[in-house]
Amino acid sequence: MTAKKWAYEDFTEGASLDLGSKLVTAEEIIAFASEFDAQPMHLDEEAGKASILGGLAASGWHTCAIFMRMICDAFLIDSTSQGSPGIDEVRWRAPVLANDTLTGRCTVVSKRLSKSRPTVGLVSIKTELFNQRRETVFELKNSVMFLTREAAQ
What we know:
By secondary structure, the chain is an alpha+beta fold. Helices cover 27% and strands 33% of the residues.
């Protein structure tokens, strides 16, 4: 097995990790909504403009999926991640509109080794996504389980 870049020991409380950027297109908003969240404001520009969202807007669940892709590409795929025990909080702070460019960051809030499985550490993170105007559009708090470097050998 090839050694992973990110193990439990590599996360430091207070550290921030850049998640890169993602252009959100009208086509992908409509495709996601057509399959998973077929509300009018996610399927049609005029319906979006008529809503409080102000334009064709990504579903909140689509925004969650975008976050997941961004975190996977930034570091999760190259880590000892064993998954997450759940989400503590998710907030959609502002609409994600067609042609918005999202950037993101994860901040390590805390970390601890599991009492029952000392080769697994829990890393609590806060993730924020911003649009091109630097407005916060999404916040998520959760923990991720990572193997220690020794356990991953």
